[in-house]
Amino acid sequence: MHDWSRRGFLAAAAAGLAACNNGTRSSQRDVIDTRVRGAIGIMYREFPDSRELRAKSAGMLMMPLVTEAGFGVGGGYGEGALLIDDAIVDYYSFVMGSFGFQIGAQQSAHALFFMTPAALADFRGASGWTAGGDIQYALPDQGDAIGTSTTKLLSPVIAVVFGQQGLIAGATLNGGKYTRIVR
User: What pLDDT, in 10s, does the model give residues 106-135?
Assistant: First the structure.
């Protein structure tokens, strides 16, 4: 009977761990979903013109919290979600590393707007998509307005960086890698 109790305990423990693991994945998705929806609201409040970018885009990747730090060598990490027609369809991580003049730490959020179906398909089809010189940054030109020329750009990917807290010299999305994660 002692053997049966041990087997029963092990089976129950394995089932419990499996259930916890499923709950963890689900709760991680819930945390990312909540952060993404909150970051979208903040972006729309800070930069109302970003609504127009979203309306014209084929999809939007929202990275609600990216933490960066560096002292000569730097790095950053964040997790977010890809939205198509305002529905979350995939989860992504963002990892970046850099070497050079930099010192400090910051947290920020950013959104990538895929302005063409081809740009969105390239992003989704890549096993790891690297941010490079092909990203056009949408910057506010007067207070909270994104320059009107920005919404007429022909760039396939437009980035909006917002919510910066802290200070780091030399920070950029260039060289960062986005990878699909399963949650």
Answer: 888 999 999 999 999 999 998 888 776 566
Strand partners, 96: 76
Which amino acid is present at 59?
Answer: G
* Tokens 């990538």, residue located: 112
pTM of the model: 0.75
